[in-house]
Specification:
Mean pLDDT: 94
Helix content: 25-40%
Shape: globular
CATH class: Alpha Beta
Number of strands: 6
Number of helices: 9
Number of domains: 1
CATH topology: Rossmann fold
CATH superfamily: Alpha/Beta hydrolase fold, catalytic domain
Oligomer: single chain
Structural class: alpha/beta
Radius of gyration: 16 Å
Low-confidence stretches: 1-5
Length: about 200
C-alpha cells in the first residue's frame, strides 16, 4: 500500500477508559473490522497508576496523528470524557464523534471518582459550545442499565451538544462484563456515515 493511499484514509482514534486497555472490551474487534478502510489508532493510557488527564493527553499526543476534518473519535467511559476535552480545544471540527457510556461528573464510586478526578474537575462548566461546534457527526451510546454511570450523564451530554442518543436495552456499561466483546451497533454507525459522507 502506498503512502498516498494511506493518507487518503480517514483516521479513527479509539480511546479506552479507566482500568481499560487497547486489548479490552470491544476495542480489538472494532479495530480489526476497520483497519482495511481506515488508519486506526488505539492509544494506551496509564491506568490505574499515574492516571490523570495530563498524562493521558501526553500519551495521546505521542501515539496519534493531529486531529482534523478526516478524524473519527471514539471514546468509552472516561475515554469519552477525554474526547470532550479534545473537542473543547480544537480549532476545527472532526468528521465524527462517537461517545460510549460517557462520564463527565462523579458517578458515586469512590475508587473511580478518585481516578477520574482530573477529567471531571471542571464539571459542569465545560465549553459546551466549542464541543458542539467541533463534534462533527455525533452519536452517543448508553446502556439502559449501566451499573457504573448513571443515565443522566449521556442524556445531559446529548442535551448540551446534540447528535443521536442511542440507549441499548440491557447494554450495561457496554463492556466485556455486559457481553460486549463486539459492538456491531457502533460499526454500523461508522459504515452508515461513510455511505452518507
Amino acid at each position: 500500500m502506498t503512502m498516498e493511499r494511506i493518507k487518503m484514509k480517514k483516521d479513527i482514534i479509539i480511546l479506552h477508559g479507566t482500568m481499560g486497555s487497547p486489548e479490552g472490551n470491544w476495542l480489538p474487534w472494532l479495530k480489526s473490522q476497520l483497519e482495511n478502510d481506515y488508519n486506526v489508532f488505539v492509544p494506551s493510557f496509564p491506568t490505574p497508576e499515574n492516571q490523570s488527564k495530563e498524562n493521558w493527553c501526553a500519551a495521546l499526543r505521542d501515539q496519534t496523528p493531529i486531529f482534523g476534518k478526516d478524524t473519527i473519535l471514539i471514546g468509552h467511559s472516561i475515554g469519552a470524557t477525554l474526547m470532550m476535552h479534545i473537542l473543547e480545544m480544537l480549532k476545527n471540527p472532526v468528521h465524527q464523534s462517537i461517545f460510549v457510556c460517557p462520564v463527565f461528573d462523579k458517578i458515586g464510586n469512590e475508587e473511580y471518582d478518585a481516578l477520574n478526578a482530573t477529567f471531571i474537575e471542571k464539571s459542569p462548566h465545560f465549553d459546551w459550545e466549542s464541543m458542539s461546534q467541533n463534534k462533527g457527526n455525533c452519536t452517543i451510546f448508553m446502556g439502559d442499565n449501566d451499573p457504573y454511570v448513571p443515565a443522566w450523564h449521556a442524556e445531559t451530554l446529548h442535551e448540551k451538544v446534540g447528535g443521536d442518543l442511542i440507549s441499548i436495552p440491557n447494554g450495561g456499561h457496554i463492556n466485556t462484563e455486559s457481553g460486549y466483546t463486539e459492538f456491531a451497533e457502533l460499526l454500523d454507525i461508522i459504515k452508515e456515515r461513510k455511505l452518507n459522507a
